[in-house]
Amino acid sequence: MATITKFEDLEIWRDARKFAQNIFETYSNSIPFSRDFKLKEQINRSSGSIMDNIAEGFERNGRNEFIQFLSIAKGSAGEVKSQLYRAFDREYITQETLDNLYMEADELGRKIGGFIKYLAQSEVRGSKFKDRL
Q1: Does the domain formed by 9-123 have CATH 1.20.1440.60?
Q2: What pTM was estimated for this model as a whole?
Q3: Do residues 67 and 119 make contact, with C-beta atoms less than 8 angstroms apart?
Q4: Cα-flanking dihedrals φ and ψ of residue 93, to 5°?
Q5: Residue 79 near residue 105, CB atoms below 8 Å
């Protein structure tokens, strides 16, 4: 298995980036949604937080820290799902949009959870521990 040396090579980061863009396009293309500045900014921050925390955890170069940041990213995916319901309840998005974005957030959360499980069982501690006893 090849060693991943940058977060951009992580499939879950690429998926999170795409998801954040999908959220942005959803509220940008909806006039009532785009005018609800607080919800728009909150869902933008939450969706961006997923990819940001994956990147930050990776850059910490330690397994336990990476797991901690992945856990935060997974929580942000849950936060977005809740915010999608608010957007739906306010009639900013359709049921179809809610279902599609919710499913995407849910799948992303499952992938992050699976990666957390993999890392927790891994013997690799991280590159910052490479030369330590």
Answers
A1: yes
A2: 0.89
A3: yes
A4: -130, 155
A5: no
